Amino acid sequence: MEDFINNFAEQIDETERNEFSKDTKFKDLDEWDSMIALSIIAMMDEEYEITINGDDIKNANTIEDLYKLVNA
What we know:
Mean pLDDT: 96
Number of helices: 4
């Protein structure tokens, strides 16, 4: 989980890593936008070989929700 949070945090420049946890509601971050969503989709494909789409992100609320997709 910690590696996933680190990989997630690398996609977002403005927020410090220590502000991320499994319970972070990523859509509430000031810099969250469609470009970061695409970065998360690409990161999950490259790092975890998991294909997700916009609906997966729309249905997730926290970083842990996205992490569960990796382990599904």
